């Protein structure tokens, strides 16, 4: 693929696309990951490729729930690992919680590839300065982020087959799950188990968006950076949350952008 | 990929996705073809996955212009060949015009693969009955559809590099071009040459959609079947066409579908 000029108005979108194409070649992603990414591109285009005010509210609410959680976990699939792996490792370091690799079309090979990617990224993140306003030993916080997902020792009740597999110390134990780009069935099952499910989904009409406890209608790499800022703030409290209202606001953003 | 139940409400969309994934594995499509397909899926979802009244008008107008044309050509890229190759060969048979393979990331290998696919499909189409209301020798009409695109003997003035290559007897000579899923630069160059450019594009905000003479905002496999019906009708005359108005109507369909 050709170099993308720094001045290109859609540079971030094109860079993300390039990352997904390259990760597919490296065996990190399932066949249909590029199609899912393309769907996301279209919704993001209609959202103006920026974080809306209502997405910002959902990010604050998600951060509040993660910070207040007893056993939070961040569930990551292939596309999320590629687009926002580093940011989400930082979030896990601040929260002192594990990351669980949980992919829809489960193969050991892809789980191992994503695991290697995230462990590599931890090594890189150790070298950086701690995020602004965060106090503590950043290297040790990063290195203590456990990457779960290879164990197969947990189950999500209410699902059948490979999709029910999870980690006992991760999703199974968690009370609050941040799970970007989740599928509708699994989102529904997790909510039925009484867990708080915080999703990042660019389609405000998707079943996942409608089922979740809190839906962040935003692109995952943008959202993950903002979640990091908010969990560092750390003075947030969960509110009475009306998720339907937030979806309506996301739809209004799209409707306004297609207004002729 | 798993079998898609006949009763699935989004069966056609899932079947198309499967065709694109399989064609990618066979080397018919560029890396980013699946991403482009995903973008299309999202827009089609927002259009309700059906042909709108305004798209139907654009299909009628396009058919009228193809029928009235002196030298029509149908330009086909990889995704179009996979999703609507058969229907467009039928359209070319009715119009007695060539098809030109013209792909964005041009490689001889992919042009040859698409060529083989279309020649195979011609052999299959020879065996079928002529379409309803069409009179003549169907087998001979199908077999006389010339598949251009390997020659490299024409140029699109105003473009640089591989994207300027076309066939002298196809796009270069044509007065009317039906070109589904075209990129913005090439659409603009073709319009600048005084050609009528009829596009099929699910994104009514794209540069291609805005540049074209007539924009059919519809999914290519649905649109191609309807174009076939209309060119067989054959009693159409081109009108004074307001393409901006048709794009506004497409945007209104999306806006209504996202209305909360």
Structural features, described:
The structure is a homodimer of 260-residue chains. By secondary structure, chain A is α/β, with parallel strands linked by helices. The first copy, chain A, is 52% helix and 10% strand. In chain A, the strands form two sheets. In chain A, strands 3-2-1-6-7-8 form a six-stranded parallel β-sheet, with helices on both faces. In chain A, strands 4-5 form a two-stranded antiparallel sheet. The model of chain A has no long low-confidence stretch (mean pLDDT 93).
Concise structural overview:
Two copies of one chain form a homodimer. Helices cover 52% and strands 10% of the residues of chain A. The first copy, chain A, is an alpha/beta fold and 260 residues long.
| Greatest interface (CB-CB under 8 A), with counts per chain | A-B, 32 and 32 residues
Strand content of chain A: 5-15%
- For the biggest β-sheet of chain A, the strand order reads 3-2-1-6-7-8
Mean pLDDT of chain A: 93
Helix content of chain A: 40-55%
List segments of chain A where confidence is low: pLDDT < 50 over at least 5 consecutive residues. Answer: none
Secondary-structure element string of chain A: HHHEHEHHEEEHEHEHEHH
In DSSP terms, counting alpha (H) and pi (I) runs of 4 or more, how many helices of chain A?
A: 11
Most strands sheet of chain A: 6 strands, parallel
What is the distance, rounded to the nearest whole angstrom, between the alpha carbons of the first and last residues of chain A? 34 Å
